[in-house]
Amino acid sequence: MKRSSQYNPALASFAKLGSVWVFVLVTLGAFTTTIGAGMAFSDWPLSNGSVNPHGWLTEIDKFAEHSHRLSGAAMGLITVILVVWLHFAEERRWLRGLSWWALGAVLVQGYIGGRRVQLDATHLPGFEMSLGQLLRIPHGILAHIYVCLLFAIAAGLSQTWIERHAGASATPSKRVRQIGAWCLVLLFAQLTVAATMRHNFAGMAISTFPLSTSDGHLLPATWDYRVVLQFTHRVLAALLGVGILAYGHVLWREKTLSPRLRASSFLLVALIALQITLGAYIIWTGRSVVVTTGHVVVGALTLAVTFLVTFILHRDTVETPASSPT
């Protein structure tokens, strides 16, 4: 197969499939964690010694965990196919390299998930969580990095990306690129805090919202590490609300951008507004399973869309002559 940097509809569609399927995996992972079903099976990689364990279609905890494992295996297969296909069909070295990073991420993610089960009973001196339970935190953080890698690959294979590179138009301003980069830094910080908070069972450490006490104080009355995590999460949410609004504003006013890219500003603002609303409803509903799962998924989607827009804004930097040779 001859390598080319020309638009390949089949390959581009397959990359988009991976970008969609990863959210099936994220949703099932979020649901599994929310209902506390991560140890529905005490073995790995099989579930009770089987790929079709008894009760997984009738018992909700077993369904959540086993379907998460199956969707993860499917995601791994999709990534392997993507790596091989890109290796033989794609001329751009940076894009092939991204696929290898994605494969590494999904393999490490699967390994961490498996060790989380196998080490669940391993006690760590000085920690409330076992070693297996502690591994849930990097497992959650790495998932977001993997999502961004898949979105970058799908963007690089898209017809819009390739046609823009072939016949470049005006370059986005430095300001819009910088604000996008800062929003990504805040989002990664927020999702890291969120994963740590979630797996330390700190989601209800502050049981009122938007204020921190029932008698109307902004700051919590008492502090411990769970309260610190929850309060930090709220502060970062406020900063992100302002940051995404600013990003949406400058995106919309950036006349050099395509109408579709400028219109993405409305999607970004809608996503952050929905995310903050879901966060509030977690407190108001006492951690509803549906709302909590939705909050995790929308958070991942907010990161993915922000990353995608910002990555596209840096297209001219990514597609430098030095990055393309085989």
| Residue windows where pLDDT falls under 50 for at least 5 positions | none
Mean pLDDT: 93
Number of helices: 11
- The helix/strand order is HHHHHHHHHHH
The Rg value, from CA coordinates, equals: 21 Å
* Structure summary, number of beta strands: 0
Strand content: under 5%
Describe the largest sheet: none
Structural class: mainly alpha
Give the termini separation: 14 Å
Shape category: globular
Q: Estimate the helix proportion, in percent.
A: 55-70%
Number of structurally distinct domains = 2
Write a brief structural summary.
The protein is an all-alpha fold and 326 residues long. It has helices at residues 9-34, 60-89, 93-118, 131-134, 136-157, 159-166, 174-199, 225-253, 259-284, 289-313, 315-318.
Task: Write structural notes for this entry.
With 326 residues, this protein is mostly helical. It has 2 domains: 7-167, no CATH class; 171-326, no CATH class. It has 11 helices and no strands. The chain has helices at residues 9-34, 60-89, 93-118, 131-134, 136-157, 159-166, 174-199, 225-253, 259-284, 289-313, 315-318. The relative contact order is 0.12. The mean pLDDT is 93.
List the helices and strands and how they pair.
Layout: H1 9-34, H2 60-89, H3 93-118, H4 131-134, H5 136-157, H6 159-166, H7 174-199, H8 225-253, H9 259-284, H10 289-313, H11 315-318
Question: Keyphrases for this structure?
Answer:
single chain; about 325 residues; globular
